[in-house]
Amino acid sequence: MQQDEKTAVLSKSFGAVADDYDRLRSAPPEDALDWLLPAGATDALEIGAGTGLFTRKLAERVPHVTALEPDARMRT
Prior knowledge:
- By secondary structure, this protein is α+β, with helices and mostly antiparallel strands.
- Helix content is about 45%, strand content about 15%.
- It has 5 helices and 2 strands.
- The chain has a two-stranded parallel ribbon with strand order 1-2.
- The longest helix has 9 residues, at about 55-60.
């Protein structure tokens, strides 16, 4: 699938404020993780991982997490 120009720009819109986003945004609620993860999960794939707030919570519960983030500024 090819992105149009607008979608390509929007997909990287948070990168410019990545540090503030990570510092100011609250972590996901534990209840959300309880609901999302099946019992005994050993692998998780997160697409659009951002700064890793959710990724860090996943890693506390799942032995193997793969996180994908297209924006280099968010990955940093």
